[in-house]
Amino acid sequence: MTTFYHSTRSAEDSVTSKQAILAGIAPDGGLYVSDALADARVPLETVCAQGFHATARLVLGTLLPDYAPDEVASCVEGAYGTQWDSDAVCPVTPLGTDWLLELYHGPTCAFKDVALQMLPRLMSVARDGGGRKIMIVTATSGDTGKAALDGFAGVEGTGVTVFYPHGKVSDIQRLQMVTQLGGNVAVCAVRGTFDDCQGEVKRIFADRALAERLDAAGVALSSANSINVGRLAPQVTYYFDAYAQLVRRGAVRAGDEVTFCVPTGNFGDVLAGYYAKRLGLPVRRLVVASNANDVLADFLTTGTYDRRRPFHKTISPSMDILVSSNLERLLYFASDGDCELVSSLMRDLAEDGAYTVPDRVMDEIRATFACGRADDDDTRAAIRDTWRELDVLIDPHTAVAKHVLDGIERDGSERVCLSTASPYKFCTDVLRALGEVTDGMNDFACMDALERLTGTVAPAQLAGLRAGEVLHDDVCDRERMGAFVESACARVFL
Q: What is d(CA 119, CA 140) in angstroms, rounded to the nearest whole number?
């Protein structure tokens, strides 16, 4: 069976999931979607009786059916092996009267590992050892960069170029990227915001002259951002697996609805929950938790998406985003596949900086999605109170979701808060939130102090960064990103 994918902006040209994953983004700038999502189902009884690996095989086999079962099984085995420090991969643990879905047990201590340990393997299978070489080009607000670098480093036939906003990621996040080993990796800071980086990456993908030059050299560009369906599909697994863990704990009976609260900026993490719901997972609500850059919360409240607003540098930097790319996929599905509408809305966003969604589409969206926001003071209070009252240490992004979830009226469903990163990736801000003075202390001194204060232990891969050598110190303006990509391709492949 082959499930075909096409752009959110046009249904004319169809590709297989392998082709969609290799391309990353559709030629017209849209995101790849499959209309088969309307009919496909993942059997809940089966999920509840098995572990993460088996569910990953089932979910990926459903969403990417042109991958043979043995190909999927090999990818799952490689992606979720000894590089994870939990046998459960993504364990569910108590959070007072709610639950915490811990997504940070992978090699870079962030939820992006769930997808970015898988994506290079999916791409490798799709290339089948031949064809053009692939240069992954990705923008990161903090976590995607290191996860992509770790996943693609050393993968034959591929290279990876990562851009991050200069001065707008945590010190630990920056060190994770700039100390990355590998002859096929490139890292560059960009003077500007994440949205500047992401917008320019999209322009690079649309640069036909660049594509022709690279094609002549046997190189094609692809993406590791959540705009790539190969990033999105693996994330659906942990929603199903979390539900199965709750069933095994006796917290819910199979068929009971569950609410998930998700800290999100680019909308990919919570969109995976929407895919899970479409595939049959009993989801009561998906709660979008925004920080002070609350463009998503405003959109869900008003029906107007407006990126023309001040940009706030917050203590939850991975969510400091004003253009949420994956929202485009939700607009497609909520409008019953109206490519013309989606294309028009995206044109309005590009030209005017805003768009307003028809009421009928917003009604469909609000039937599933709720929202809330937390500023930095709310975030610090959530970190402090969660530690003091529940003896659970959380990072600022998780704290945004915890604050929002605490403000949502209970409706009888079990509630799961997604925890997207280790608190030690943001140890300075976590330590300050716990009331400690950090003046004159670097991140590693704060890491040590946080260990002493809480009796917890920093992940070895983060503690070890203090001995890492900076290998990537490039900084450029937005306008030079395309040239940097071309030079990286020449260095890696030519």
A: 16
pLDDT tens digits, one per residue of 394-445 = 999 999 999 999 999 999 999 999 999 999 999 999 999 999 999 999 999 9
Identify the bridge partners of residue 287 per DSSP, sorted by sequence position: 261, 370
**Which residues, 6+ apart, have CB-to-CB distance to 79 below 8 Å?**
56, 117, 118, 121, 234
Write out the two tokens for 465: 């960064």
Do you know the residue count of the chain? 494
Q: Which of 112, 133, 202, 402 is catalytic?
A: 112
- The string of DSSP letters for 46-105 reads HHHTS-HHHHHHHHHHHH-TTS-HHHHHHHHHHHTSTTSS-TTSS-EEEETTEEEEE---
In angstroms, the CA 189 to CA 153 distance is 19
Q: CA torsion sign, 160 to 165 to 170 to 175?
A: positive
First vs last C-alpha separation in the chain: 38
The answer to whether 294 and 314 are in contact (CB under 8 A) is no
Pick from 287, 263, 306: nearest CA to 110: 263
| Tens of pLDDT, residues 178-217 | 999 999 999 999 999 999 998 999 899 989 999 999 999 9
Is 112 among the catalytic positions? yes
Max intra-chain CA distance, the chain:
61
Q: What is the mean pLDDT of residues 134-161?
A: 92
What are the residues whose beta carbons fall under 8 Å from the beta carbon of 341, sequence distance 6 or more? 331, 335, 358, 361
- For the chain, what percentages of helix, strand and coil (3-state, to nearest 5) are there? 50, 15, 35
